[in-house]
Each structure stands twice: as structure tokens, then as C-alpha cells.
Amino acid sequence: MKILVPVKRVVDYNVKVRVKADGTGVDIANVKMSMNPFDEIAIEEAVRLKEAGIATEVVAVSAGLANCQETLRTAMALGADRSILIETDAELQPLAVAKLLKAVCVKEQPQVVLCGKQAIDDDANQTGQMLAALMNWPQATFASKVMVAGGKATVTREIDGGLETIEIGLPAVVTTDLRLNEPRYATLPNIMKAKKKPLETLTPAALGVDVAPRLKALKMAEPPKRAGGVLVKDVAELIAKLKNEAKVI
Ligand code: AMP
After folding, report:
1. CB under 6 Å to ligand 1: residues?
2. Is the Cβ–Cβ distance between 84 and 59 less than 8 Å?
3. Domains of the chain
4. 3-state class of 138 per DSSP?
5. Among 61, 88, 115, 131, residue to substitute to test ligand 1 (most atoms within 8 Å of Cβ)
6. Closest CA to 70 of 118, 34, 121
7. How far is CA 159 from each of CA 146, 203, 209, rounded to the nearest angstrom?
8. 130-171: per-residue pLDDT in tens?
């Protein structure tokens, strides 16, 4: 069983991003980039399925600039067997990524696509769902437990107020939530080994996909600064303020 894991190169979660002065986007010049954390969880889960003898191959795929290669090398250091870079300097929106992943699925015929539930840069939470729709495959989103056996996946999903367990036929798309697992660290020997693993480079044109953006961002702005707090001298004053000023009680 082959598992395809889409991994996105995003601004590292520790970086505090700044909106560009002209409001056209976020300034990512000279900021640290890393693998999207939910995709690290997806790689970890795929590698665990391989270690358990359920999967036979884990293929990582990333779409974007040439330096997404670094992200793919990290995926391979964490245990992916090989990877595919879909190289483009075009702005990629989730629908375009889903179309590219569809083309890769048609070529690679994976049984499971294990992707992150959302990318922490655009917070779209769309790509996995769109891919499932384009492929006409079942989907299980927000997975906190995944079991694969007998051509089916049993997935426990994190939903409002609890957990839901569903069974879906394969091939399918599964998207990872935070509590699915704790990803391992790449060891130095594995980082060295990853340098020799195969990395194939494709382009959207070679896959026959038009990646032109369908949505236009009109403006981006920093959230309003929080006003400073005030110290109250006793509970009575606090209640009076909550009642008369904040009007919340
Ligand atoms: P999003 O819909 O943008 O929140 O992304 C959800 C998931 O889709 C991510 O966690 C990745 O697994 C995958 N994905 C999104 N963009 C890319 C990309 N450019 N390359 C590879 N995978 C991606």
C-alpha cells in the first residue's frame, strides 16, 4: 500500500509574521521556513504505518518554489522513501494544489493520501477536502487515530464536543489533527541518508494543471492592538465595570 503525503513549506510557527506596509500580504523575506506542523504529523503517521508493515511506500509531495526541496528532504529524513516536487513560482491557492495533487494521484495511484488538516500560513483547511471531491474518494478529516486494514480505514475524528469514529473504503483522503501522534526528530544519520533518496521534479504544465489563482486577496491588516488593562480595587468595582462599561453581565 502506497501512502502519499503532501507537505507544505510554511513560515515557521515560532515566527511572528508582519503584514507588509502596503497591505498586500505578509512579509516572508528572510524568515525561517519549516514543514507545516500538521504535515509532520502526517509523515509520522505514514511512517508508523510502514513500520507496522501496513504501508509499503511513503511518498512526500510538495508544490511551490525550488526550496520546497528542503522540506521534502526533511520528510525523507523522517522516513518518507522518495519525494516529488511540483516546482512553480506561481501563487498556489488550495484549489490549485488540490488539482496538482489529483494529477499526482492519477500518476502514483496511492491508497491513502494523508495530509495536514490545514496549513498554518493560509489556515485554509480546504486542500484535503477539495482533493477528495476531485478524486471522488471518501474523506476522513481531523483524524486523531487511524487504523488501516482489509482495504478500509477506521478513523477517529475530533469533532465539537467529542470524538467520532468512521470507516471509509480506500483509496481515501485522511487529514491529520494535532493529537494524532507526536512526530519524531530527524536523526543525523537519517538526514544524511535522505540526501540520497530520490526526488523527482515536475511542473504544473507537465501535469496539465492550470494553477491560476481564482480568488483575489483585497487587503491584509494586523489585528487591532489590545488596549491596556485597568486595575480594579475590589470585586464590587469589577462587577460595576462588567455591568456598566463592558455590559457583559
Ligand atoms: P490548506 O488547505 O492550505 O489549509 O492545507 C491543508 C493541507 O494541504 C496541508 O496541511 C498540506 O498537507 C496540503 N498542502 C497545502 N498546500 C500545499 C502545497 N503547496 N504543497 C503540498 N501540500 C500542500
Report:
1. 6-8, 36, 38-39, 62-64, 92, 94, 97, 115-116, 118-119, 122, 124-128
2. yes
3. 2-224 (3.40.50.620)
4. coil
5. 115
6. 34
7. 15, 37, 34
8. 999 999 999 999 999 999 999 999 999 999 989 999 999 999
